[in-house]
Write a structure and sequence with these properties.
heterodimer; A: about 325 residues; alpha/beta; Rossmann fold; 2 domains; six-stranded parallel sheet; six-stranded mixed sheet; globular; B: about 350 residues; mainly alpha; ABC transporter involved in vitamin B12 uptake, BtuC; 16 helices
């Protein structure tokens, strides 16, 4: 076997030839949550899958499991001839920028934070607008006039969700009380469903009957606890209404799937452009979901009110506050 | 258990190879179970680790972490203390290095780098000092205290990075990137300036430092009076105490030096590769150091070889999940775990038979 091992090494040096650079090669690097997080990263995966199905072009992908792998992942993609590499999540910024400087001809798309390098396209969302709408829905669906918010890691991005949600709830019904908890201040806060469930139960104990989870896989615990407690949950990023049919009021979708799909498509067709894009309700990049799992929970009056607010926001007549980092 | 004397090439060559082969056999079953070709997967793993200069660079880069983390366990082990706190000591070492780099943004490299090196070592050693002192004076169990100090370290660092050291205007809990004078030179550009082209990797000058550290640990343990005292205390503390050796001194000395070595993980990660302090940068290297030390039988040479194997597995595993999408990162961990299990815990699996043949 020792001999076989050496043989394997020898074989590999011949196998490890670079892939041809002519063909279009899309690639995507997920964050630590992984592509099966039923939320942010999974939405990105869905977008990439849609691209693959429609064009027949396969994509490379990688899930980060250690900090040191970030730069390695981007560099590997670029070195193997990727035409475009999408980095999912704000924690990818430094690694992506470092590699983008080394490979100026490769296109990079960064989701959820911004970079001003000439070969990087950044996409951020106006989460506060979508959160505002689901906040309205929460307030209108609540019988106790108490609604909850469970965030993941306490960062400006998640506070943007929280503020929009709370403003939306008070816009629909000024008497609504909003409870707000963050799971933690480190990235571990994204992957702790047990703690999420605990926070949700404590909010239920205080009277909340609708809870919005913006917390990665931690949110799955929140939604489980609200469903078990007979209350309503609100999902985030991807459409999570199917998780607990009838116990999910709606989901605040962030169309990461659309961003990934469009970036791949644009790169393939040659009209990909660097720069910063800010997407909100007007671009249909954030919003709330209505499907067969929750259409009984959202009455026509609720929907009419929310749609009115949505039109107002798009027209610029209703201003949604954006959380400002201190 | 009494061990028959085996020829050195069997003990250190053939036996590990056999266990490695058994581990790869077991891994093949795991890969077969998910419907992939084990031969292709294992060749990808091997090729990713040592197939090109970039792969070798990454392997050595990861191995550097494992050398420091392994030495951090082995040195106190010879003194009779089981240091489980490498993770926290490495974390604090990063803090020391980062504070120097952030405090002296404009200084030249000959000032920043030695100071950062000293600070990384000192902070790691300092973090190990409290458990060491508690053991020496209160007989607290170091396994418990060093584990607890890992948790305290991670809470402390989370607080500092989220509230104090975070670079302004961003969400990720990490410091600003250090000035370039504080970057430990990487091997790829260094060789390129000499006209040798190798693939890119974060391999940097902390790798030779790791080799020197291994040699230093050997020198200390087997060629100095302090080392003799440490080993004597580890073999039989009653006899050592009777012989006039201060157990408090050997405990504190061995644990603090171990902590300092763990702190040097930051040399590779913070100064050599990331050039900034980020949350969770030790990424489990401190814990892996325990397995490295055990596999290397607590000898610097063994640790170096074990660290190379760990580095190769780490790098090869990353390449594996790149090239074979069906081999998820979880399967990679299974393969790594099997190799560690066989080589570390089951290393005497073939021993009886080898003894029958060779001894």
């Amino acid at each position: 076997m020792g001999k076989a091992w050496i043989l394997a090494l020898g074989l590999m040096t011949t196998l490890a030839s670079p892939a041809s650079a002519q063909t279009f090669q899309p690639a995507i690097v997920y964050d630590v949550g992984g592509k099966a997080d039923k939320s942010f990263n999974e939405a990105a995966f869905a977008g990439a899958e849609r691209f693959r199905k429609e064009t027949g072009v396969a994509f490379r992908e990688f899930e980060i499991s250690a900090e040191a792998q970030r730069e390695q992942a981007f560099a590997n993609m670029a070195r193997r001839g990727a035409s475009i590499v999408i980095g999912i999540g704000f924690t990818q910024k430094v690694a992506l920028e470092k590699v983008a400087k080394q490979y100026p001809t490769v296109k990079f798309t960064l989701v959820d934070t911004t970079s001003d390098l000439p070969n990087v396209q950044s996409v951020i969302f106006r989460e506060q607008e979508g959160s505002f709408l689901v906040g309205m829905l929460a307030a209108m669906a609540s019988k106790t006039h108490k609604v909850g918010f469970v965030g993941g890691m306490d960062i400006p991005l998640i506070r943007r969700f929280a503020l929009g949600y709370s403003d939306g709830a008070k816009h629909a019904d000024p008497a609504t009380e909003v409870f707000q908890n963050m799971t933690g201040s480190t990235p571990a806060a994204w992957t702790d469903p047990a703690r999420g469930a605990e926070l949700a139960r404590s909010q239920i104990d205080r009277g909340a009957d609708v809870i919005f989870a913006a917390a990665g896989t931690t949110g799955l615990g929140v939604l489980q606890a609200t469903a078990d407690g007979g209350k309503l949950g609100i999902g985030v990023d991807a459409n999570q209404d199917h998780l607990h049919p009838g116990r999910m009021l709606t989901s605040m979708v962030k169309r990461v799937d659309l961003v990934v799909y469009r970036a791949f498509m644009a790169a393939k067709n040659g009209d990909w452009k660097p720069g910063i894009a800010v997407l909100g309700l007007a671009e249909d990049a954030v919003g709330y979901t209505v499907d067969e799992h929750n259409d009984k929970l959202i009455t026509p009056e609720m929907k009419a009110k929310v749609e009115a607010a949505r039109a107002e926001i798009i027209a610029g007549r209703l201003k949604v506050r954006e959380y400002q980092a201190p | 258990m009494t061990r028959a004397k085996l020829p050195a090439w069997v003990d250190y060559g053939l036996a590990p190879l056999l266990t490695l082969a058994a581990a790869l056999g077991a891994s093949s079953l795991a890969i077969l179970a998910i419907g992939e070709n084990p031969w292709a997967a294992l060749s990808t793993l091997a090729g990713g680790a040592v197939g090109d200069t970039s792969g070798i660079g990454y392997t050595l880069y990861y191995a550097t972490n494992f050398v420091f983390a392994g030495l951090a366990v082995a040195l106190p082990f010879h003194g009779g203390s089981f240091n489980i706190g490498g993770e926290g000591q490495a974390y604090l070492g990063g803090l020391g290095a980062a504070l120097v780099c952030l405090a002296l943004p404009a200084a030249s490299w000959w000032l920043v780098l030695p100071l950062a090196f000293i600070a990384a070592f000192a902070f790691g050693a300092g973090w190990a000092f409290v458990p060491a002192w508690l053991k020496a004076t209160r007989d607290s169990h170091v396994v418990i205290t060093t584990i607890m100090f890992n948790l305290i370290a991670s809470a402390l660092m989370a607080y500092l990075l989220v509230n104090v050291l975070i670079a302004p205007g961003q969400s990720a809990p990490e410091t600003v990137t250090f000035a370039e004078s504080a970057w430990l030179p990487q091997v790829t550009p260094l060789l390129a300036s000499m006209g040798i082209e190798i693939g890119p990797s974060p391999l940097n000058l902390s790798f030779p430092v790791a080799i020197l550290a291994s040699f230093g640990v050997w020198l200390l343990l087997w060629r100095t009076r302090w080392g003799y005292e440490i080993r004597a205390a580890g073999l039989n503390e009653n006899a050592a105490a009777y012989g006039g050796i201060s157990l408090a001194r050997t405990t504190i000395l061995s644990l603090c030096l171990g902590g300092g070595l763990a702190g040097l993980v930051a040399l590779n990660e913070v100064l050599g590769a990331q050039h900034r302090l980020l949350l969770g940068f030790p990424g489990g290297y401190g814990f892996a150091g325990i397995a490295v030390a055990l596999m290397g039988r607590n000898h610097p040479v063994g640790i170096f070889l074990a660290a190379l194997l760990f580095g190769a597995l780490y790098q090869g595993g990353t390449e594996l999940s790149f090239d074979m999408p069906d081999v998820t990162r979880e399967i990679v961990v299974v393969i790594e775990g099997l190799v560690i299990l066989f080589c570390g815990a089951l290393e005497s699996l073939f021993r009886k038979r080898l003894e029958a043949i060779f001894a």
